[in-house]
User: Which sequence fits this backbone?
């Protein structure tokens, strides 16, 4: 059949013939009223059910906040072979039930209390006329009236209360964006490491203590504090990132050591943070002849023969130096912690104690 025949007037006319549609239009079925339409007591009972479910939501929201702040993150619940964090279970149950109750209440409201009449909406032009717009607003007003929200005000009030209460969990979880960076919090977190007096320097791969006599001039060793192995999980990863060091040995006659750091080295062996002061990249590209340490990310260059000062690149601060000595067995140990925070700069950081070229 050609496309002209397919769309010819005779073809269209035949498609509308009675044999093409043998079943008559059944129309709308007879309306059967619900129990709540004819029994006011049943409607009141449904209203109480909906309001009760909405009313439970604020309680669950408060429980969410209480669990968030009161249940320690170290608590766990055993479910046979499974083990779940108690705080996470509590938060999931309370918030999940709150959202579920709002959904069930909304469905119950629509099925039992809103208008239950059938209607036919005929097609109309895409653009609405003024009369249509007036009619639409009339339908909106009718919908509000049919929802009985104006008559049964407890429904609207309980719904608003339920939705508003869900804001409490949202506000509470803002705390997970991180602790407020007060001076005390910074001092206990990003501004401190686990380095302390007497902590041995160990190889970052084998965790073997580093002996001063085993390091030759020109050698660079990547290290960590020995007490790092006492940690595990997130604490281990956080402290490993902050406490990473490099140990280098240079000829004492070829390096500059300020008076304030005379006892920070052992026969030309010096220890610096491995974290670039620009954006925190780990660095270990060592130029033995120039005593320069190059960051591979943005080419910041530090002179380890001059207390780690910046000689090139975007870094604005000297590389923090760790004061070291040796113990009775000849192993390198820290004299104390870093005297300044390691890693990149941030707005609240106090840079007054950072070493600058020419300082003594």
Assistant:
């Amino acid at each position: 059949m050609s496309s002209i025949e397919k769309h010819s007037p005779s073809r269209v006319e035949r498609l509308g013939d009675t044999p093409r549609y043998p079943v008559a239009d059944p129309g709308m079925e007879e309306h059967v009223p619900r129990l709540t339409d004819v029994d006011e007591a049943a409607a009141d009972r449904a209203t109480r059910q909906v309001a009760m479910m909405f009313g439970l939501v604020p309680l669950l929201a408060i429980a969410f906040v209480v669990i968030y702040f009161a249940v320690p993150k170290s608590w766990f619940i055993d479910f046979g072979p499974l083990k779940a964090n108690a705080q996470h279970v509590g938060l999931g149950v309370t918030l999940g039930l709150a959202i579920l109750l709002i959904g069930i209440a909304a469905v119950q409201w629509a099925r039992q209390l809103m208008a239950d009449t059938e209607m036919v909406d005929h097609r109309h032009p895409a653009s609405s006329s003024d009369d249509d717009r007036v009619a639409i607003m009339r339908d909106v007003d009718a919908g509000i009236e049919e929802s009985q929200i104006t008559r049964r005000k407890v429904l609207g009030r309980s719904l608003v209360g339920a939705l508003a209460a869900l804001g409490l969990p949202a506000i509470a979880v803002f705390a997970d964006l991180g602790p407020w960076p007060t001076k005390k919090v910074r001092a206990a977190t990003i501004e401190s490491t686990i380095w302390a007096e007497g902590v041995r320097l160990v190889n970052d791969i084998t965790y073997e203590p580093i002996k001063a006599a085993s390091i030759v001039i020109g050698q660079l060793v990547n290290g960590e504090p020995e007490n790092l192995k006492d940690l595990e999980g997130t604490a281990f990863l956080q402290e490993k990132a902050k406490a990473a060091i490099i140990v280098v040995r240079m000829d004492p006659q070829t390096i500059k050591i300020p008076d304030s750091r005379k006892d920070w080295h052992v026969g030309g062996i010096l220890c610096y943070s491995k974290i670039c002061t620009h954006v925190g990249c780990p660095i270990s590209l060592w130029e033995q002849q120039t005593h320069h340490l190059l960051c591979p990310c943005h080419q910041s260059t530090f002179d380890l023969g001059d207390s780690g000062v910046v000689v090139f690149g975007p870094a604005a601060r000297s590389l923090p130096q760790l004061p070291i000595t040796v113990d009775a067995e000849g192993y390198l140990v820290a004299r104390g912690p870093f005297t300044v925070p390691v890693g990149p700069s941030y707005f609240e950081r106090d840079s007054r104690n950072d070493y600058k070229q020419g300082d003594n």
Observations:
- The radius of gyration is 37 Å.
